[in-house]
Amino acid sequence: MSDWTLRESLATTSGTVRWDRFGDPGGEPVVLLHGTPFSSYVWHEIAPALAGAGHHVHVWDMAGYGTSDMHPDQDVSLGAQGRILTELLAHWGLREPSVVAHDFGGCVALRAHLLHGARYRRLALVDPVALEPWGSPFFRLVGQHSHVFEQLPAALHEALVREYVTSASHLGLRPATLDALVGPWTGERGQAAFYRQIAQADQRYTDDIQPLYPTLDLPVTVCWGTEDTWIPFAKGQELAALIPGARLVPVPEAGHLVPLDAPARLTSEVLTFLRA
């Protein structure tokens, strides 16, 4: 899947989101959620592997991300994304899929399940944004002054995004992979969208649900890159301890971008979890 293209779309209250699915329609459904500032492209190695193992894999770009709509005054908050996921599951006709969620996608999956009634067969959380406090000093600085950063010259903005995305990886990203992740945030439309999603990031979206984690009643695995400098491994230990029966899986030599730093290891762990 070197040419990662999402062929389908769904109109939502936050604009049209792009999505796609791969594999045997009769296979167990699996939904993959990306985080920020990324897109469904983070799954471009793992999605075909899961599909090849017999699963029906669903991916989407969150509103305001990747190839989905980006427009002024758009609600791209974690609250909106949780509602959109619920809409997508209904649109796909998935009553109880397994879900694998990375970074912001973890909060989105948890909100859809805990607040909006979305049902999952299993839930795998990969370095998720789920516990307070969160947001790096850079992330908070940009959020407080997004109107200033939006005015950066295009070349300076792109250099900033490239450095930021690169810092999520422990092993380093291939040039083509980095280009695919940074590309949607370039140009006038993409630059505004990049700072919009940071400006709308708010810890209250995890504060809403953190007290509910002990009520989770489904199989949960928590995978965490041991070299994650964005959200330290200790947060994975804390999260797993809050969720009844959760299994913590350290992923060595991986940073925050586990799906790209350790795709084979993560695929193996996910497949083991799905088959349990």
TrEMBL record:
Domain AB hydrolase-1 per the UniProt entry, residue ranges: 29-263
EC top class, as a word: hydrolase
GO cellular component term of the entry, any: membrane
Record's keyword annotation contains Hydrolase: yes
Keywords assigned by UniProt, alphabetized: Hydrolase
SUPFAM superfamilies: alpha/beta-Hydrolases (SSF53474)
Pfam families: Abhydrolase_1 (PF00561)
The organism's place on the tree of life at top rank: Bacteria
Gene3D superfamilies noted in UniProt: alpha/beta hydrolase
Protein's UniProt name: Haloalkane dehalogenase
Originating organism: Streptomyces chartreusis NRRL 3882
Organism lineage: Bacteria, Bacillati, Actinomycetota, Actinomycetes, Kitasatosporales
